[in-house]
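Re: that backbone. Tokens:
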């Protein structure tokens, strides 16, 4: 089992400068490799450049530029080239499937924030001074960097990554662990229905209110973005001190909202995993749900369009993104796997329009967003609770049809 740990780094001023230089030089390597692929494709011979050929050039690149490329780990530079190779593989995969993806783009220094080390001990070493009570990680070209280790690392460290978020630095460890012991069985099963007003409603009639982190921070974000808009668009190296402060302010507010959303998702998922053995949820296609509506050309007025509800749909899309359903479901599945719980995804169609006691399905059964009233039997309930009950029923049917 693979688990990730993320710890805050406490570099000195010189170490922070060296870490920034490492990101800069890996970004330059990434952009240079991308430029080589673009030039090869535009050449009349249509030469194909792959990872193997670019990796073989690293030795000469390091010898030619020892100050910027030769000082860093060879393996980390290979990982950067693999990162570019994965970007091209994803691009061609989407082209083959009929999508219209964007071509891999050059990265600015401010947008290249991670360097990967494929193996602990090769260019990096986690907790390289075990006799020291303070945890440290060693990076080639940087030195031993102090780590704010807030919990022990259990298992064998496989990969190490260094990541920059604003002015802070983090180390991310990928650790191989034995399968943990499952939590004691509770004998409880539950179905959950995800929403916006209520983030979650379960089949027991309980609700988790929607936190709406972005909406609560909207006033601060608006003020910070207005302050940033007063500055002309410039490259990072040409920004004034006030411009840089405005950029950092907006970025920090967005990071705070992201941390709040992650914290809420972790706590909600942990509560479900501890309380229930089986958890059923809707198999939501979030990308399709948040897709913009298609324009409606006016048949009698060329060049004009009919109202298509785009403004209302944009507000709904913002609320869906703010809820963070995808992040929550990913965390729920990971925690359930560690705890030995079972998570079942079911088809979400008509879950809120079907009467649980009699099975009558009709659009009219749900007169409002919150109310459910069965036209056949007269059953009254909250629409989200009805949806959770139907999700649980479908999940149990699927579980018994496909036993583990």
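Recovered sequence:
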């Amino acid at each position: 089992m693979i688990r990730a740990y993320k710890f805050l780094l406490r570099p000195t001023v010189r170490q922070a400068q060296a870490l920034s230089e490492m990101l800069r030089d890996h970004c330059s390597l990434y952009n240079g490799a991308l430029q080589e692929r673009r030039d090869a494709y535009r050449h009349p011979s249509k030469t194909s450049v792959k990872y193997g050929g670019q990796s073989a050039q690293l030795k000469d690149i390091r010898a030619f530029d020892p100050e910027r490329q030769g000082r860093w780990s060879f393996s980390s530079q290979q990982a950067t080239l693999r990162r570019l190779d994965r970007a091209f593989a994803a691009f061609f995969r989407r082209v083959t499937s009929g999508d219209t993806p964007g071509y891999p783009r050059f990265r600015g220094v401010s947008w290249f924030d991670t360097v990967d080390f494929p193996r602990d001990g090769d260019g990096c070493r986690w907790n390289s001074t075990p006799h020291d009570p303070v945890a440290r990680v060693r990076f080639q070209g940087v030195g031993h960097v102090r780590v704010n280790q807030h919990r022990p690392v259990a298992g064998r460290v496989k990969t190490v990554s260094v990541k920059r978020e604003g002015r802070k630095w983090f180390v991310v460890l990928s650790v191989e662990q034995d399968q943990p012991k499952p939590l004691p069985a509770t004998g409880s099963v539950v179905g959950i229905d995800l929403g916006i007003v209520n983030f979650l409603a379960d089949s027991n009639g309980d609700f988790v209110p929607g936190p709406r982190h972005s909406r609560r921070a909207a006033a601060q974000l608006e003020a910070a973005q207005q302050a940033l808009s007063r500055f002309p668009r410039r490259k990072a190296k040409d920004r004034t001190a006030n411009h840089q402060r405005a950029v950092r302010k907006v970025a920090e507010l967005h990071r705070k909202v992201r941390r709040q959303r992650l914290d809420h998702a972790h706590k909600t998922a942990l509560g479900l995993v501890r309380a229930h053995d089986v958890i059923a949820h809707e198999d939501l296609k979030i990308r399709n749900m948040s897709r913009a509506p298609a324009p409606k050309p006016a048949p009698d007025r060329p060049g004009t369009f009919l109202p298509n509800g785009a403004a209302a749909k944009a507000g709904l899309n913002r609320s869906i993104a703010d809820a963070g359903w995808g992040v929550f479901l990913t965390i729920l599945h990971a925690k359930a796997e560690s705890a030995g719980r079972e998570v079942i995804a079911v088809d979400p169609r008509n879950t809120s329009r079907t009467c649980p006691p009699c099975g009558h399905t009709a659009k009219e059964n749900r007169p409002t967003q919150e109310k459910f009233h069965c036209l056949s039997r007269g059953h009254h309930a909250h629409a989200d609770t009805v949806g959770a009950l139907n999700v649980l029923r479908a999940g149990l049917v699927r579980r018994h049809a496909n036993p583990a």
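The radius of gyration is 26 Å. The chain has two domains: 2-176, 189-401.
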